[in-house]
């Protein structure tokens, strides 16, 4: 834990007091292990990050709080910010998104993951009636399944090696299957497990000329992909999805701010509280952090600021 000096907010800035944060286990585990590739370090910088990879670095990108000081019409507002784990911070007003009244700040910490899931659905080009497999029922996979299942007529299945994820999938209304019973002949497949075995499962789920969207990020690891077998005869498309860019078909109209506003609005459903798998006080985080990252049962682990 490190202390920082904060100057009073200047014109166009606000001082935010954090109420809740969230640990993004997949990305933060790679950062904590020093596995951000040197060639990707500039692109992997979090907003308002301090320090450089590998260490020391101030990282994280999900904070919900309220404006404590700044323009009069902003003071007291509940806001979300893509900011590292920190109990108070000063940022430009344009970095803040107002949390909708029907979204509790304790749930708003899912906004960064919801933004990623929204981008994946856009990249996947999911249409009404599509048969969809989502391999990997972590937070991003679950949220992607939640969004895809809301498109009329879709048949969505969440696939994961951990049978315990079936309960969470059921709570958000999405069918679940282990890899051995994963659906075949799918129109769209999304891979979000972060494992090479999951990618193999995803490719096996794809039907003729289907699109397979790779949403996992592996840091500096080389990942084998089974591009033999029926990959070419099935004429499959393997497409990357990364939240740093709005998909080309929407880029002219959708700013990052507009996308994040929509992600926050999509969190109004109380069923999404099922994705919060635990909570730790900010002052206790130094001792608990690495254990949280190592625990494969972790979904969204919330940080509580006092």
TrEMBL record:
Cofactors that this protein relies on: Zn(2+)
Protein name: Zinc-binding alcohol dehydrogenase
Matches recorded under SUPFAM superfamilies: GroES-like (SSF50129), NAD(P)-binding Rossmann-fold domains (SSF51735)
InterPro entries associated with the record: GroES-like_sf, NAD(P)-bd_dom_sf
Originating organism: Fulvimarina uroteuthidis
Family: Belongs to the zinc-containing alcohol dehydrogenase family.
Domain of life: Bacteria
Keywords per UniProt: Metal-binding, Oxidoreductase, Zinc
């Amino acid at each position: 834990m490190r202390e920082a000096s904060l100057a009073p907010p200047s014109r166009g800035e606000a001082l935010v007091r954090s109420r809740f944060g969230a640990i993004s286990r997949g990305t933060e585990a790679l950062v904590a292990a020093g596995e951000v590739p040197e060639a990707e370090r500039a692109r992997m910088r979090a907003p308002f990050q301090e320090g450089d990879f590998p260490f020391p670095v101030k990282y994280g990108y999900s904070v919900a709080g309220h404006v404590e000081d700044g323009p009069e019409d902003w003071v007291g507002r509940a806001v979300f910010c893509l900011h590292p784990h920190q109990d108070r911070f000063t940022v430009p007003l344009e970095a803040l998104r107002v949390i909708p009244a029907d979204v509790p700040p304790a749930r708003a910490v899912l906004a960064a993951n919801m933004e990623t899931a929204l981008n994946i659905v856009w990249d996947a080009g999911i249409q009404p009636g599509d048969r969809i497999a989502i391999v990997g029922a972590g937070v991003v996979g679950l949220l992607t399944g939640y969004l895809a299942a809301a498109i009329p007529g879709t048949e969505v299945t969440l696939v994961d090696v951990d049978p315990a994820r079936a309960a969470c999938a059921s709570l958000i209304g999405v069918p679940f299957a282990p890899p051995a019973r994963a659906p075949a002949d799918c129109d769209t497949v999304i891979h979000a497990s972060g494992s090479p075995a999951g990618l193999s499962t995803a490719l096996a789920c794809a039907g003729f000329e289907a699109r397979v969207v790779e949403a996992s990020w592996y840091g500096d690891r080389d990942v084998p992909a089974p591009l033999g077998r029926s990959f070419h005869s099935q004429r499959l498309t393997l497409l990357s999805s990364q939240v740093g860019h709005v998909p080309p078909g929407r880029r002219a109209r959708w700013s990052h701010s507009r996308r994040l506003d929509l992600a926050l609005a999509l969190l109004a459903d109380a069923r999404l509280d099922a994705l919060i798998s635990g909570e730790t006080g900010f002052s206790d985080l130094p001792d608990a952090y690495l254990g949280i990252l190592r625990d494969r049962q972790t979904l969204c682990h919330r940080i509580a600021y006092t």
